[in-house]
TrEMBL record:
Stored Pfam families: PALP
Official protein name in the record: Tryptophan synthase beta chain-like PALP domain-containing protein
Key word S-adenosyl-L-methionine present: no
GO biological process: cysteine metabolic process; serine family amino acid metabolic process; sulfur compound biosynthetic process
Compositional bias per record (Basic and acidic residues), positions renumbered to this chain: 296-315
Coiled-coil spans in chain: none
Region (Disordered): 275-315, 343-376
InterPro entries: Cys_Synth/Cystath_Beta-Synth, TrpB-like_PALP, TrpB-like_PALP_sf
UniProt similarity note: Belongs to the cysteine synthase/cystathionine beta-synthase family.
Cofactor(s) this protein cannot do without: pyridoxal 5'-phosphate
């Protein structure tokens, strides 16, 4: 009996299926008591066919998150954030309504956990973003509220604010700034990769949405072996991170944020940065040095208060270029309890070049439309730990879609668009002489069936619709 107890002891970072297998190994029932118990642990698979066709001499390894109960990496985030909020006493089953602005995958993960634990769940998403995900959320019983896509994230946040005004017990996890998001990957995804590669991983590559996966896995792997390279992938059409001269640390950061527009909600869009003069920037837009000082994580994110007192112009003046084309459509996004969200732009200090050439010399930097769902939100989320990123690689929507189709046809891997982006980035990295013989591990964040109404399936959709007998 003592032996059985020892054998089923929870091994660090092993949840999901392995926790059941340990039971069957000692002759006990290996039946999951609920679907949330299956969250965690996904298999690694080597993509040998594509590596061979590309003439790559590095090992390409993907982590199949389609093996999660709701087929995406966000099941882990959902469980991690719910468990964290419950431990902190922030939410109570049967009492609290969970409400989250989501593009879809976190939403489906949250529905699963909400069903299991007895929460009402409302997903707020832009209309037309993904019909597949919208249908899935409804199919699973979530309440879905659509916002005008023209309003972007701000429109979603305004809707959340509107709803929460009339809702007594609600909780918004705020995945872009919630530390429980990267913590889930530090606790589970990172150890899984480390163990399942027997510590042989040399390079970890993944696209950032909230940055939760990259930061959590990256921190864990760097802790185990600081020489592992962490590569961030982002859409070339919205190369906000690479546009921020990100490589091996950030000399100094500057944040631009908005004043809050309600007790629990901070949001603004700064289209006015199109203006040619900083003096025309409204006083609600601020630029302040990042304060990494005292106290808890939450405390260190706090802003100095300021606002409509005219000081904003002075603060922005040394930081903004005389003309800021790169920032013309910059959106500053977020929502949180009393903690203004921010957009961070690393700056080089002292900056010798004129401000206009400073921006001209940056690659990318501006948000733009792309099709790699779940990634490239157009701003740098607080949960993206840039201090651990060794390199940023950009990949276009077209490259990503092409690669996702190749993964299906050449490897039999039915995965989504961001998986295509990640593998495309891996191939670019693997082609380098210095990476010969190295093991490159990447995330395959979601299963492909979720994208049947997207461009990923456009060619076969048309073909099948026009088939006759
Ligand atoms: C399909 C897909 N890929 C990648 C990501 C990025 O993950 P993270 O938010 O951890 O950066 C997401 C996030 O929602 C996603 O849905």
């Amino acid at each position: 009996m003592a032996m059985a107890a020892a054998a089923v002891e929870v091994e660090e970072g092993r949840t999901g299926i392995p926790s059941l297998l340990r039971l069957s190994a000692v002759g006990e029932e290996a039946i999951a008591s609920n679907v949330a118990q299956l969250i965690g642990w996904t298999p690694l698979i080597e993509m040998k066919n594509i590596a061979k066709k590309e003439g790559i001499q590095a090992r390409l390894v993907g982590k199949m998150e389609a093996y999660q109960p709701l087929f995406s990496v966000k099941d882990r985030t959902a469980l991690g954030m719910v468990e964290d909020a419950e431990e902190k006493g922030l939410i109570t089953p049967g009492v609290t309504t969970l409400i989250e602005p989501t593009g879809g995958n976190l939403g489906t993960g949250l529905v699963l956990v909400a069903i299991q634990r007895g929460y009402r769940f409302i997903a707020v998403m832009p209309a037309g973003y993904s019909l597949d995900k919208q249908m899935l959320l409804r199919f699973l019983g979530a309440e879905v509220i659509l916002t005008d896509p023209a309003g972007g994230f701000k429109g979603m946040m305004d809707k959340v604010e509107e709803l929460t005004k009339v809702m007594p017990n609600y909780h918004c996890f705020n995945q872009s700034i919630n530390p429980a998001n990267p913590d889930a990957h530090f606790k589970w995804t990172g150890p899984e990769i480390w163990k399942d590669t027997a510590g042989k991983v040399d390079i970890f590559v993944t696209a950032a949405g909230t940055g939760g996966t990259l930061s959590g896995v990256g921190r864990y792997l760097k802790m185990k072996n600081p020489s592992i390279n962490i590569v961030c992938v982002e859409p070339s059409e919205s190369a906000v991170i690479s546009g921020s001269s990100i490589k091996h640390g950030f000399p100094q950061q500057t944040e631009i944020a908005s004043e809050g527009r309600g007790p629990n909600l901070q949001a603004c869009i700064l289209p006015h940065l199109k203006s040619s003069s900083p003096s025309s920037v409204p006083p609600t837009a601020w630029a302040l040095p990042v304060r990494k000082s005292s106290g808890s994580r939450r405390e260190s994110r706090r802003w100095e208060h300021g606002g409509s007192d005219g000081r904003a112009d002075r603060r922005l003046a040394p930081l903004l270029p005389t003309s800021a084309p790169a920032l013309s459509s910059l959106a500053v996004l977020g929502w949180s309890g009393g903690c203004p969200n921010s957009f961070s732009i690393p700056t080089e200090e002292p900056r010798k070049e004129s401000s206009s050439s400073f921006w001209r010399n940056r690659r990318g930097g501006s948000p733009g439309f792309h099709k790699i769902q779940g990634t490239g939100p157009g701003f740098i989320p607080e949960n993206l730990d840039r201090s651990i990123i060794d390199e940023v690689v950009t990949v276009s929507s077209e490259e990503s879609i092409t690669m996702a189709r190749r993964l299906a046809k050449e490897e039999g891997l039915l995965v989504g668009i961001s998986s295509g982006a990640n593998v495309s980035a891996c191939i670019k990295i693997a082609a380098r002489e210095e990476n010969k013989g190295k093991m490159i591990v990447t995330m395959l964040p979601s299963g492909g069936e979720r994208y049947m109404n997207s461009d990923l399936f456009a060619d076969v959709r048309e073909e099948c619709a026009n088939m006759t007998f």
